[in-house]
Amino acid sequence: MSTEDFIDYIINEYEMIAPEESGHDSDSFWKEVMTYYSDSMLKASVTKKNAARILYAFLRHVIKIPNADWNNAKKLRDIYECRVCAEAIAQTYERGIINASAETAFGINDVMMEADLRDSVRKTLNYI
């Protein structure tokens, strides 16, 4: 699944379960995540750090849930290799949306399989 397909999948799945009058703002989510990526990046496979950034933007803009405290995420040594991703990684990890690759590594550059991406969307939408 490409990054663009993943973003579309999130919005489509959300629209199937959320009533229009819910007050959630998927437009601001879409606008934010589209600023992250160039056309070539949108065609690329989804890495864990990019999935985390996209899902975190959805949690903030659409579901509007507050950040969780960093408890278990502190042990992930690679979380700071992407400074703009650190909060997103921590939030999706703390909430059990995306699992770490190892006990002390999130695996920020690992490409996620389509089944795992779909599962992460399902877990995210459970917060609605």
Descriptive key words:
single chain; 128 residues; mainly alpha; 6 helices; globular
Annotate the secondary structure layout:
Blueprint: H1 3-17, H2 26-36, H3 39-43, H4 48-63, H5 86-94, H6 114-125
Helix pairs in contact: 1-4, 1-6, 2-4, 4-5, 4-6
Number of helices: 6
Pairing-aware structural class of the strands and helices? mainly alpha
Weakly predicted, low-confidence segments: none
Give the oligomeric state: single chain
Average pLDDT level = 93
Question: Which of globular, elongated, flat, extended, rod-shaped describes the shape?
Answer: globular
What proportion of the residues form beta strands (DSSP E)? under 5%
* Biggest beta sheet summary: none
In helices, the fraction of residues equals 40-55%
Element-by-element helix/strand order: HHHHHH
Radius of gyration: 14 Å
Tally of structural domains: 1
Distance between the termini: 24 Å
Total strand count, please? 0
Describe what this molecule looks like in 3D:
The chain contains six helices and no strands. It has one domain. The chain is 53% helix and 0% strand. The protein is an all-alpha fold and 128 residues long. It has helices at 3-17, 26-36, 39-43, 48-63, 86-94, 114-125. The longest helix is centred in the middle third of the chain and has 16 residues, at 48-63. The radius of gyration is 14 Å and the shape is globular.
